[in-house]
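Might you be able to consider the sequence and fold that I enclose below?
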Amino acid sequence: MRALFSYGLAFAILLLAGGWLATGTLVQGGQGPGNGETPIIAVIEGEEHGPIATALADAGVLAEHSGPEVDPALTIAQRNEATTGSGAPLQSVRTQRFTAAPMPIEVPLRGRTQAKATVTAVAETSGAVDVVHVTKGQRVDVGDPLCTLDQGTRVAAVAQAEAALAQAEAALAQAQLNFDTNADLRDRGLAAANTANAVEVALAQAKAGVSQAEAGLDNAEAELERTEIVAKVAGLVQDPVAVEGSMLNAGSPCATIVQLNPIVFTGMVPEAHIELAKTGLEAKITTVTGQSVSGKVTYVSAVADNATRAFPAEIEIPNEDFAIRDGVTAEAIVNIGTAPGHLLPQSVLTLDDEGVLGVRTVEDGVVAFYPITIVSDTREGVWVTGLPLVSDVITVGQENVSSGQAVEVSPVDQPSETVAS
């Protein structure tokens, strides 16, 4: 019973396969276009459009083939001429006119922000720290006090120098009086010559004493002033900061100041653009934190980095509110000038048979191909060079035509003026 079922199933499948094949077409090659194709059911019935074929066609299961719409009497060369030759209908394309405009030439640089300077305020004399006027992170301006050293002995030295100066000035006044009196007596012939010489010597000594006392006072006051350590630059206070009660020697740090205004962007200029790089160029800097600021190029190195063959450059950025911090990754776009270019949509770019990137245009009804160079990519399109000043660029159908082919421009879009951004 099982064997009978298997044979029956196989026979049914065979009938279905035969019926499906019978709905096809028998193709005999070498008989020309439209010849040699006969429905298999017609071969079985022995006639065209027999009753079985008609029934299958009405049921929609019989394959129907329509011959190509070509004259069988034409040769292959004649048929090719009719479809692709000079007698063939022109390929239709659509164009848009683009006119050259000033194109901004921008060089991107990657780098980071860097403090203009990191300055360590040091003691100019020795002494114990009496007062620390600042804390870490505090903003200071030029002249703000940072640390005060013990002034006890220096105040006493100033007082002593002031007293010595006063004494020297009194001695000078007395010597001047003696000199004036002696001069009057000499004029009247009442003073001896040796007395006059002694008075002059005493006056000179008194003047020297005053000068020495003044120098001593200046030194004492300068030493007292050195106990006040003040900021030489504006910025933020960072470690290390001295501790009250600690002993500082000459040259020991009181506090460290990071100068953040202006702040500097440091990056590398590729050697391909180094001839265009120069100081004074405008630049726009964007940090990874989302801050966007403008600055100017202040330094371009004359020596390339040995590893990257790029040239270090610096861009100075105003940072009055200290919002930009030191060491933040950033990108700078340096505007190095303008050049004639075209702003095109990316969709018009294509490749020629050799894989060269370019644009196809129409000139006097004939397709032309121009290799182009992409200078920059923007939201509005791509800036390119290599096209004539005014170009009718193919926007639809550029992949279906080739250079030198005559085409029908239908329709031509309104001329488009490129506007530099």
User: Anything to note?
Assistant: Confidence is low (pLDDT under 50) at residues 415-421.
